[in-house]
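Lab notes, practical 5.
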Amino acid sequence: MDRSSAGQFDIPQEMRAFAEKSVEQARHAFESFISSAHQTMNAFGDQAETTRQGARDIGQQVMAFAERNIASSFELAQQLVRARDVNEMVKLQSDYITAQIKTLSEQAKELGETTAKLAREAARAKS
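Output from the prediction step:
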């Protein structure tokens, strides 16, 4: 790979396209997750105090997830800056996408379980 005197290197267009697509996929998955979380919170908006507290709990859970996901993104950015070559950058990006998809899936499952629990509690409170 041709390196300039400043220690930089050219990234092939295919690698840029792959990285851009990976970032776009992660962004889309995160946006879907946040959208679902907002819909869940809105669904609880008109319920009794138990449900309002549940909505607050879900909101706090969503914010914690978002903070962790954003921290992971910054960690990836730091790793990419330190990458020695394009191959390492691609591996870092690929590993990040794989981990992020797993994380978002786990977070969605956890949010679903919390939502179901709160729905059961709300139904009991109405009875």
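Observations recorded by the TA: The mean pLDDT is 80. The radius of gyration is 20 Å.
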